[in-house]
Q: What sequence folds into this?
């Protein structure tokens, strides 16, 4: 078991990472929820697989707990599902000493986290992320949200969890495509801030893809540590935290255009977004060609897409980027690669090269 | 024009109080919304009366602004109306440099404030409270919320406004009953923390009821200052801020039972709740009879109810108190009066005397 401490003053918390982390849920809930009651929010797939163990751990520790399962998939990140959670929390008459457990992937963490953020103006919650994407990304930093039909994550809050339990064993049953999608964020973290981790990923790609537990424990822990150091310095994304949006400006746009369907997973969109951003950086003369190649090669080692055969029309892309919430003063901003391990954020770029970059062709400066 | 500074570090802001404060809206929006665009949220009554002036002030200052009016009344503090605001904010493609103006009473401040708190995980907003209740109470402290059918303010957030403009002239047109309702919170502030203000209210009750502008400006400013000093010390209501719940434990309960209808205004419920809490304090031997009498007399001078002919059945009261969000670890807590100007919070009280206290009869210890 590894631990990462995330330091936010009074709201600091610990991430537990290991092959049986979920067994600690009851124990964690005892210290996080003094009121002794909890609602476990999950999706139907995860609930079937891990719900009984989670409830058993809570009940053994003397926590009165119930389970609410929403349909699996991004469509559950909606005001409608949020409202269902409020109905259940209110009818259980939970008070501020009670809590919520978000058991599942990123969708559940975002949805459950937002419910906890605004029910009674904030109750404590524990994240129990069961997907790689959630373990390395959304469980660190306290961002919670639901989608709006006009844009992803348009409605949300910053609300730090009281604890995070990342059970590496839950990655065993993760579908291959979701595992790959999680690796996109792992590669992103290494690319923006940790050249040594990038090299580790290049050298250990095979072990990681075989889901070797020791390798995954290390990868998850290093990612959490790296992301924690960034969000601690800039909780509300006024500066440094923007670097985490590498690949997200175009990534979110093509995700929005695909309608958050299963046709395109978040990590796949981000992988294409990163590759495109790297090509654009190179076109601007900011980043050596060799680093673009290393990035593209590593993403492809993990089975991720790095180009689109038919990128959306430029006008559509511009519209989708426009409606993205990362806009500032009306201008879309990009995170550009300087070299493996270093990025520059807040860059303005004309839309001239967007489609070229997404199509996989080199962009001229 | 008087000003009160509310100190929350980076989130500090100024409250402007005066007979033409609303004219400063455009100027305030220029410094609060660098993106130069705003959505004004109001209710239909207030929008008819002050909407054109608000929009004119914004547009003169170069702010592109639109107005969204929801139906008047507490029923608009709902997820459904919140969702309408999100639809409008999203379709306007406002970014984080743009903002929201909450123009209206407490309902609009709570609803608009929550929309601003969670749209894009927080955009700036300006409160332009037009009711006495909103000017002396809900515009200070950053509490925002909507109701749930199982309880008032169950869904909300803490989100400090970027500025508050309290236009005293808007109190001229306030219906008498709403004015009285606002005075309940004024009396509450004086009772819990400022014996000198209490005496001022006793001596100037007639001028205040005549809506003398100088007297009202002083009353609003002193109330804002007093509440600001409390919430600055305890933004998230873990201690001192609980004293502001004086009269609210039973007040909220009878309000919940009345169904947030126009049959009972918030201030009327709080007035009865305060009188009941004072009688309970006296029954506990905590507060002299004379102070209970002064409190009841002052509330009655302002035309507020201090007793119910037929209080709800005890079981109903208990149920409604139970579901109130101020509960901690399952036990309802009371704020009890020690003397005019001083209260004690976090007190547990058996439900034995609740109905007696609400009926206006003295409670035995």
A:
């Amino acid at each position: 078991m590894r631990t990462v401490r995330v330091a936010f003053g009074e709201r600091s918390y610990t991430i537990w990472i290991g092959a049986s982390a979920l067994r600690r849920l009851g124990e964690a809930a005892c210290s996080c929820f003094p009121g002794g009651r909890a609602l476990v929010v999950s999706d139907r797939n995860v609930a079937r697989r891990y719900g009984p163990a989670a409830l058993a751990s809570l009940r053994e520790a003397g926590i009165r707990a119930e389970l609410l399962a929403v349909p699996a998939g991004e469509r559950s990140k909606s005001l409608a599902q949020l409202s269902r959670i409020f109905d259940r929390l209110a009818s259980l008459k939970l008070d501020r000493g009670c809590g919520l457990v978000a058991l599942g992937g990123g969708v559940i963490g975002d949805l459950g986290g937002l419910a906890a953020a605004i029910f009674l103006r904030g109750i404590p919650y524990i994240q129990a992320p069961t997907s790689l994407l959630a373990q390395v990304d959304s469980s660190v930093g306290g961002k919670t949200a639901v989608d709006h039909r006009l844009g992803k994550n348009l409605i949300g809050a910053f609300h730090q969890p009281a604890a995070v339990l990342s059970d590496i064993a839950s990655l065993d049953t993760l579908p291959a495509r979701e595992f790959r999608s999680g690796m996109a964020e792992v590669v992103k973290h290494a690319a923006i801030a940790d050249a040594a981790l990038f090299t580790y990923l290049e050298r250990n790609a095979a072990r990681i893809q075989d889901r070797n537990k020791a390798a995954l424990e290390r990868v998850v822990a290093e990612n959490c540590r790296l992301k924690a150091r960034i969000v601690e310095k800039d909780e509300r994304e006024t500066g440094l935290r923007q670097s985490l949006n590498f690949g997200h400006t175009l990534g979110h746009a093509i995700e929005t255009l695909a309608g958050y369907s299963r046709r395109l997973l978040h990590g796949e969109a981000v992988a294409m977004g990163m590759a495109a951003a790297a090509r654009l950086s190179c076109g601007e003369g900011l980043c050596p060609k060799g680093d673009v190649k290393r990035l593209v090669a590593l993403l492809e080692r993990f089975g991720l897409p790095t180009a689109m055969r038919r990128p959306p029309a430029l006008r559509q892309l511009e519209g989708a980027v426009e409606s993205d919430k990362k806009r500032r003063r009306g201008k879309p901003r990009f995170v550009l690669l300087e070299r493996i391990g270093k990025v520059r954020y807040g860059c303005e770029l004309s839309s001239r090269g967007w489609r070229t970059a997404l199509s996989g062709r080199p962009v001229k400066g």
In short: The mean pLDDT of chain A is 94. The two ends of chain A are 48 Å apart (CA to CA). The longest strand of chain A covers residues 151-158.
